[in-house]
Amino acid sequence: MAVLSSSYSSSAMQKGIVVTVPVLVLTASLSAVIFFIVSSSLSSCSCPSSISTSRNDAIVGGVRSEEKISTSQEDIDWVKDLIRSNGLHMHENVLRKGINPRTREQQLQDLIQYKGISHYVGDEASNHTALPCPGELLVEEHHSNYGEPWAGGRDVFEFLAEASRLKPNARVLEIGCGTLRVGLHFIRYLNPGNFHCLEKDELSLMAALRYELPSQGLLHKRPLIVRGEDMEFRKFGSGVAYDLIYASAVFLHMPDELVWTGVERLVDKLKPYEGRMFVSHNMKFCTRLGGEKCTERLASLGLESLGRQTHDSLLFNHYEIWFGFRRIKG
Angle CA(253)–CA(320)–CA(256) in degrees, nearest 5? Predict the structure, then answer.
């Protein structure tokens, strides 16, 4: 049987150990296999790299820290360049040639008379429409129920979300959400279940629940929308604390004392110091008391006025006025 060398063999023999060439080769091969396995497992490890860590840092505790809200100047420049590069110009708004160009009125008449272009006939059992929607909602007549364009809802959302420094895990209550002209944007931005609304008008709620939420793919966000009036908020729960409470053009149409009743009930639901309450257009329910009495009554409830703020519309010549408040008692 062969041995390594005379010197090594002599030393090994003195210790009673003989290392043969096949044994050495086998040992070396085994070491190589182990090294290959270890190195392969390390190279395929799913351990977080510096890139994945930075991406995970953007989502902590349900908060998307880099979530963008407002349109930036860079965004505006980009779309202007795209319009310009495509040579686009606004023309007279007339019906274009197509499969079946129709006005809203004509679309509604088609739905009533023909049920659309293709449709199921016979009894309801053969109708595969999961959530049948009234024709008036399908042609979006409710988008014209406001004193300004529907697109203004996005402007309100951007102002309120940034003024309140909202994160997706925040909780928001709107008093009078109507057909969700503003609320849709909050619902899309916030975590499921975190948008609440009190609305008294049945037709508005029908538009919100039977058209807007389904058509925008937001049913999974599960907003809590309650039909009610007289500023009653018990159905929202006793332990909820809101980061933002707002009323857009709602207090204008209510008696002052009813507004105060609502404000008194809402104070304890607003997070102290960091939470914000916003009222649009004016705060005459308070200023009609007189300057000092207005401040005193707010202070008695633990509220502090943050003054008047305005924001501009992105798409049309319009600005809106808001009055902000915060809770100064824990």
Answer: 25
In order of 172, 301, 329, the CA distances from 240 in angstroms are 10, 18, 17
> Is residue 102 helix, strand or coil?
coil
In this predicted model, what pLDDT tens digit does every residue of 101-120 receive, in sequence order? 677 888 888 787 776 667 77
Terminal CA-to-CA distance of the chain, rounded, Å? Answer: 90
120-153 residue pLDDT tens: 776 666 677 788 888 889 889 899 887 789 999 9
Between residues 80 and 44, the one the model is more confident about: 80
Joined tokens for residue 118: 């293709």
Question: What whole-number distance in Å separates Cα of residue 223 and Cα of residue 121?
Answer: 34
What's the pTM value of the predicted model, to 2 decimals? Answer: 0.75
Residue identified by tokens 């049948």 is 132
Of 297, 13, 280, nearest in space to 163 by CA: 280
Which one-letter amino acid corresponds to residue 296?
A: E
Residue with tokens 């705060």: 283
Residue positions counted in the chain: 330
For CA atoms 61, 65, 70, 71, the dihedral sign is negative
Joined together, the tokens standing for residue 227 give 């039909």
Predicted confidence band of residue 273 (pLDDT cuts 50, 70, 90)? very high
Give the mean pLDDT of 187-206: 95
Look-up of token digits 């190279």: 43
Residues 110/219/208/147 CA torsion (nearest 10 deg): -100
On the question of pLDDT at 36 being above 70, the answer is no
Give long-range contacts, CB 8 A cutoff, 24+ apart: 147-153: 147/249, 148/316, 148/318, 149/315, 149/316, 150/181, 151/313, 151/314, 151/315, 151/316, 152/181, 152/313, 152/315, 152/316, 152/318, 152/320, 153/180, 153/181, 153/182, 153/183, 153/184, 153/185
3-class SS string, 139-170:
CCHHHHCCCCCCCHHHHHHHHHHHHCCCCCCC
pLDDT band at residue 309 using 50, 70 and 90 as cut-offs: very high
